[in-house]
Every structure is written in C-alpha cells, then in structure tokens.
Design goal:
This protein is α/β, with parallel strands linked by helices. It has 17 helices and 13 strands. A seven-stranded mixed beta sheet has the order 8-7-10-11-12-9-13. Helix 9 links the parallel strand 10 and strand 11. Helix 3 crosses helix 5 and helix 15 packs parallel to helix 17. The longest helix has 75 residues.
C-alpha cells in the first residue's frame, strides 16, 4: 500500500468521524469533562456589554483580592491614587491567588486579552479585556455562588469606601452640565481637621449628637422596617461664629462621609434641583448653608392667603446669570419628597442665623429631624478652646474668665482669636488669657453702654410720645371750644332775626 493510499484512507476515516461522532462528542463533552475535571469556573469581566462603565462587581473583587491576597500573591501592579500620595496595589495580569472561605479553598486568576487585529484605536487601553476567573470544586457551588460572592462584593465595597479620598462638592451652573467631561458637580479633596473633640460645645450636647449620628449610620434595617428612606435632617441655627460649619465638618469626619454643598443661586428651577439630588452618592452630607439668606420664608403670623403666597416665593435674584426659579415646594420635595429616597444613608443639613424666618413646614420633624442650637461661648466651651489652642486644662485666670463669660456674650470664634499666640513671650498662655479678659471686659462695657443708651432712647421716645399725646389733646380741646362758640353765635343770630320778624 502506497503512502498516498494510506493518506487517503486516513482522510476518509476522519471525514466519517466528523460526520457521525463529532456531534455526539460535542454534545457530551461537558459531561465527560466533569468526570475528569470536577471544577467550576466563573469569569467576572471588567466592562459590561456596552463598555461604557466598569463593572461595580469587578471593582469590588479587585479591592477584595488586593487586601486579602497581599500575602499570597507574588506580582502586583502599583498605581498612585488621584488627589492623594497613596499607592494602590492590585494583582498583576496573569497572576493567581488563593482564598479560603468556611474551610473551602478557592483560586482566583487575573486574565487579560488583547485584540488580535492591530487596528488604530483612540482608546487602546479600553480595547484590552480584563477579567477575574474564580475556580472552585463543583460540590461547593451553592456556598460559593451565594454566601461567598456576597461576602466578597460586600467586603470589596467596604474597602473601597474606607480607602477613598473624601471630597467636598459644589454644584456647577447648568450651562456647564453638558459636553465633553462636563458634570453637575465639581469637587476638591476634603481635608477639614474638625472633630467632635475639638468643637467648642458642652460635652453632654456633643455626646448626644454623636450617639444620634452613630445610631443613624447603623440603622439600615431599622429604616427598612419602619418604611422610611434612610436619611436624616439636621437644622443648625445660631449667630455667626458659633461653630455651625465646624459641626458639619466634624460630622463628615466622624462618619467618613462626603459633603455636597448646594449653592441655590446656581440652580435655575426645581427640575435642576432634582437632577442634582439624583447625582449625589450614598454616605454623604447634603448641605444648604444660610438658607434664611436665600429664601424669604417669613410666613408666620400672616393670613392664610399670604402664607400660601409665601410658599411660592422665589429665591432672591442676584443678577441675570444667577436668576433662580426654585420654589419652597420644590425644596420640600428635594428633602422629603419621593425623589429624596433615590439614595440611602444621607444627611441633609440646613444652617441659618434666624430660625424664626423659616417656614415651619420646612423645618418640621420628619424633614429637619434634629434641631441643634449654637449659642455664645460658655465656660465649658472655653475650656475646650483653651486645650486646643494653648494645651492647658487649668490656669489661675480661669475663674475670672468664667465670671466674665456669664456676664457678657462672645462667640467661640472671637474667643479662639484671642487665644492664638501673637508674640513670642516666656508665658504665652497667660498673655493670651489676659488678652481675652481685656476683650471680655471691653465687650461687657460696650454692652452696658448699649443697654443704657437703649434705655435712654426708650425713655426719650416715651416722653416724646406723652408730649405729643398732650399736645394732641390740647388741640382737640381748642377745636371743640371754637366749634361750640361758633354754634352759639349762630343761635344768637337766628334769635335776633326771629325777633325782628315778630316785631
């Protein structure tokens, strides 16, 4: 038999095999493989089908593997996190790592594939396809697909939240919302150092607020049970310089939240305000500062018609570019309407100087759940400031300062300014405290003079009013006599004419 005949016979047998046996093998290959290779593989791709956004699950898995496999993997990729100097590590391409869950061993692998065609692309990195491959024994399928993957996703998101660079956002004018790389919010890194330990406030009040915030951030199941959106409103009110903005920063640092500072003058109407709300993230604080300056809500003591009209008053116009048609009803929907439930675990904070100007409907419980008053500096708040600025817990001048703080009013911001050392002396603590005592005595004297001046002005106004009243009575009496004399003259004249007629 020649070589050609052998080759032809092999080709014939191969054709017969493909025609009659290949479909059967393809149909049952998975069953045959399961006996030989009893493992299941799951791929998690970086991008979804539309390739516009990275998969949240992929990112969570990446964070989880970076944290849990740092001692087991050997090759990593390093990347500088934007806006920080921190280095983020992730498993390198084609690297493997092991994990263990409830005694079950699993294997993770990082894979990357590049397109075979070498066409020119404007986004070459986006053309690369990455995925994480999870391998485990088929007998643990229910455990891995259920509890383990939920554990990985949850832990990965928690790690991303802890390691992120916190930000403070402000809303852009609506004309900047569209186009290439234009967004509704602009941000900078949030690095405010305020904490509840450094706040100039009574310790009992601070403890109450901290407990309230702690209960809120752990209350997901509770809010779900009672059927309320997972959010809470805080109204901070008091004179300028009493620590309202510092309180917001301390709340953000305590809960590790981002801040969204809403500038209402840049919002054209209620629809834009709603769009801004939908673009905020969970675990954030939405702040509207000095709301009494933006809204004319003084509807108390008015007639019902005037109250209804006041609820549709607009934000004051500040030039053509900042013209706004946001209504109070739109603001109410923003904080307590159906759209307010589009996110979870968020705080909404209003600050105001004159709480009496605000419409009661805006600050009622359920919208502004907790009202916190900020007042002038008391002695307990002063001791916190003295510890912050001078690092002292006691001093022989403290009793004098305590007495003066009870007799006059000064904001914590003014007190803090006098506690800042302004010269190089051998005893800066005493120098600062003496400076504060002098300022308090001056403020006390100014307040006394103001009270006396006010009392004198009030007395002068009272005397002036009494004098005007007496003069008015005198004028009325004179006018009455003239009228009476005129009437009497008329009667005399009439009697004379009557006598002449009779004569």
């Amino acid at each position: 038999m020649t070589t050609g005949e052998i080759f032809a016979g092999v080709m014939f047998l191969w054709a017969m095999f493909q025609q009659y046996f290949s479909p059967y093998i393809q149909k049952n290959s998975q069953k045959l493989m399961s006996f030989v290779y009893p493992y299941i593989q799951i791929n998690f791709h970086e991008f979804s089908a539309d390739r516009w956004k990275r998969s949240e699950d992929y990112v969570a898995i990446e964070n989880y593997l970076t944290a849990s496999s740092s001692t087991r993997a050997k090759r990593f990729k390093a990347e500088i996190i934007k806006d920080t100097q921190s280095v983020a590590l992730s498993i390198d391409d084609h690297e493997e790592a092991t994990d263990e869950f409830q005694g079950v061993k699993l294997w993770w692998a990082s894979n990357k594939s590049t397109p075979k065609n070498h066409s020119i692309s404007f986004y070459p990195v986006a053309d690369e396809k990455r995925c994480y491959k999870l391998t485990f024994h088929k007998q643990y399928r229910d455990l891995i697909v259920g509890a383990y993957l939920n554990h990985v996703i949850k832990e990965g998101k928690a790690i991303a939240f802890r390691n992120r660079q916190r930000k403070i956002y402000t809303n852009n004018p609506s004309q900047n919302w569209y186009g290439y790389k234009k967004t509704l919010w602009s941000y900078v890194p949030f690095e405010h150092p305020a904490t509840f330990e450094t706040l100039a406030m009574e310790s009992k009040k601070k403890e109450e607020i901290v407990n309230d915030l702690t209960i809120f951030c752990k209350g997901k199941e509770y809010y779900s049970i009672i059927g309320k959106a997972w959010k809470r409103g805080y109204l901070l009110y008091g004179p300028p310089g009493t620590g309202k903005s510092s309180m917001i920063a301390a709340m953000a640092n305590l809960l590790n939240y981002d801040i969204y500072d809403v500038e209402l003058a840049s919002v054209k109407d209620n629809t834009e305000l709603r769009k801004l709300l939908t673009q905020t993230t969970r675990k954030s604080i939405i702040v509207i500062e000095d709301i009494d300056c933006w809204l004319d809500l003084a509807g108390q003591g008015k007639k019902e018609k005037e109250k209804e009209e006041s609820k549709e008053k607009l934000i004051p116009k500040k030039g053509k570019e900042s013209e706004s048609n946001v209504t109070v009803s739109g603001l109410l929907n923003f904080i307590d309407g159906l759209w307010s439930a589009c996110g979870e675990e968020r705080l909404i904070v209003f600050t105001t100087t004159f709480v009496g100007k605000l419409d009661p409907a805006l600050i009622r419980r359920g919208r502004m759940d907790k009202h916190i008053e900020f007042s002038y500096c008391c002695f307990e708040a002063f001791k916190v400031l003295a510890k912050n600025y001078l690092d002292i817990d006691s001093h022989y001048l403290f009793p004098t300062i305590e007495r003066l703080l009870e007799e006059t009013r000064m904001t914590p911001a003014d007190v803090a300014e006098h506690l800042m050392p302004k010269s190089n002396t051998d005893d800066p603590e005493t120098a600062c405290l003496e400076d504060l005592i002098g300022a308090l005595e001056t403020a006390k004297e100014e307040e006394r003079v103001k009270v006396e001046k006010g009392a004198k002005e009030e007395e002068d106004e009272k005397l002036e009013a009494e004098t005007e009243a007496k003069e008015k009575e005198a004028r009325q009496a004179t006018t009455g006599e003239v009228k009476e004399n005129g009437v009497l003259g008329e009667k005399v004249k009439e009697n004379g004419l009557l006598n002449e007629a009779l004569g």
